[in-house]
Amino acid sequence: MCGIVACIGKRRAAPILLDGLKKLEYRGYDSAGIAVSEGGAVVLARRKGAVSQLEFARAYPGTMGIGHTRWATHGAPCERNAHPQTCGRIFLVHNGILENAAALKKECREQGEVFASDTDTEVAAHLIDRYFREGGDLLHAVWSACRQLVGSYAFAVIAEGREEIVCARRHSPLVVAKGDGEAYAASDLGAVAGAGRTACVMEDGEFARLTQEGIALFDADLASVVRDFFPAGEEAAAPEKGTFRHFMRKEIAQVPLAVENTLSGLQNQDISKLIEVLCQTKYLHVVACGTAYHSGLCFKYAAEKLSRVPTEVFLASEYRYADPVLPDHTLTIAVSQSGETADTLAAGQLAGERGSPVVAVTNVEHCSLNRIADFVVPTCAGQEVAVAATKSFNAQLAALYYLAVALARGRGMRAPSLAGLPVLTHEALLAGEGVAAWTPYFTVARSAFFLGRGADRCAAIEGSLKLKEISYLPSEGYAAGELKHGTLALVDARTPVVAVVCDETLADKTMNAVHEVYARGAPVFLVTPFEELARSEQVTASVLIPRCEPAFSPMLSVIPLQLLAYHVALALGRDPDKPRNLAKSVTVE
Ligand code: F6R
After folding, report:
1. Most CB within 10 Å of its CB: which of 128, 290, 343, 454?
2. Best residue among 1, 255, 341 to mutate for probing ligand 1, ranked by most atoms within 8 Å of CB
């Protein structure tokens, strides 16, 4: 996914780039680099590892530069594959994937050009260098190169001897901002916001030229475009861990606040038009990825139970290529913490093209998904730093349950109140700490299972994703009743099984699965509000969470599972905030 940043102005660029990159590190953190221009000459610094590895470059002189923090797509994470990539007098940073890079490289090699990296990006540097040498105009050179590229990109490009930065955007996010005698570009607003600045989110196909005098924007034919710039406010204070060892643990502690802020935000916002459309809807579709997909599964359960409106949940990466059937009166809800996930964006766009109104449920105000949606439902979780989504999941549930309740009531059906959820999540948080004692069973495990039925299954699947994502322990979230149809073969004494049992009507059924795994020697852990189940002889240990309406129970039952993943990751010596191979915002396919 990668994060890019660029700046030109009166102040030294290196500290601005490094501080900006730190704010973008959630997008990737396997290598980083900056290129700073001083008196027409460009100095390059690149390192494998986190942005902190570049601190030696903070003292570099020069008031113009570009920077990059990488999540490797093409080429291993190492110094020569780090950005900025360069060719001749050209230096560029790139977020995205160039799908025709191999063909273009072949063509360049046939002309005798030599490549220094394994990246797709380097070929763009070669093309820009070629056009720049021919015409001498950087903007035109970038534009000409982009015409040959297939795929996604947000570029920031500088050239030796030039006092300008040229940016281009196609299917990857890019924001430009300006202040007094300075201009910036970055993958997200947080990295360019600052007192007295204004910003503009570039549209797909647009180009920008940044100079000390300001920012000129151009459309896909290089015709000048005039866009409104909005105040980019005070620089958001970088979140801190405070008394917590990790952001993930802090963010789990913030779940009750995230839920409360999301619910009160919706109560205080006029969403009557959306509710009107919602209540005329015959079919609900949800498109999302990862944890957001799981919140969609939880929503399906609640929406169908409370309102009887048929609800389908789609993995956005599948939906976009599945030629989906959208019956008349379908409303599509695209759920995304970042609002930048490429697959979710594309799925939302496709639903819109096929005539469905699109609702974006997002946690970032100025994100791409909000801009393509007909309605925006904000989750108010606050910035989430840890790669594993925790508080944003609960905030998504709060927003989606709010819609489910509004829909049910709009259709004249009774629906329970959500008012108690913030307090209940707080109680679940306190109870959830008990899972720390379960970790020894997981650190020696070969794999783990999370079981549940109905809404409990949705929580189980999310708990399983959390565990594998940050502890690297193979794990599966499974429908309790399905286990015996093959998967039970995997269960033995080194397979801890976590059962989520919050729906009284399904409890006995799920406990059947508990008996089955217990009989195969598996240690069994329970997340449940039912004391008598917790006392079952088959149960090694349990966490008692508060009772709530079963349709909403994943809101509570997931909290001990988030904590379990955190404690197991710690016990195994993993970094829970920055799991290997992952990034917070997935802006590539
Ligand atoms: C898992 C996780 C990911 C994201 C997924 C979608 O903890 O964080 O599975 O949920 O990449 O991201 P968003 O919600 O930003 O679209």
Report:
1. 128
2. 341
